[in-house]
Design a protein that fits this description.
Structural class: alpha+beta
Distance between the termini: 35 Å
Oligomer: single chain
CATH class: Alpha Beta
Number of domains: 1
Length: 59
């Protein structure tokens, strides 16, 4: 997983989007992770996984 600074993300947003389609990208500010950019497909897979996990704990 690639890591870039928030400043780099802002300056190179188009490249960040392109890279995030291939693999998640950590975004840091002052040395701390403040976010992770993922592809829509990865986001949807995570959303479904956690929704199913939540439903299984409620049953």
């Amino acid at each position: 997983m690639q890591t870039i600074t928030a400043k780099e993300a802002k300056s190179n947003f188009s490249e960040l989007l392109d890279h995030a389609r291939r693999e998640p990208v950590r975004v840091t500010r002052r040395g701390h992770v403040v976010g992770v950019m993922v592809s829509p497909e990865d986001y949807e897979a995570m959303r479904v996984f956690y929704a199913e996990r939540l439903l299984s704990t409620m049953s």
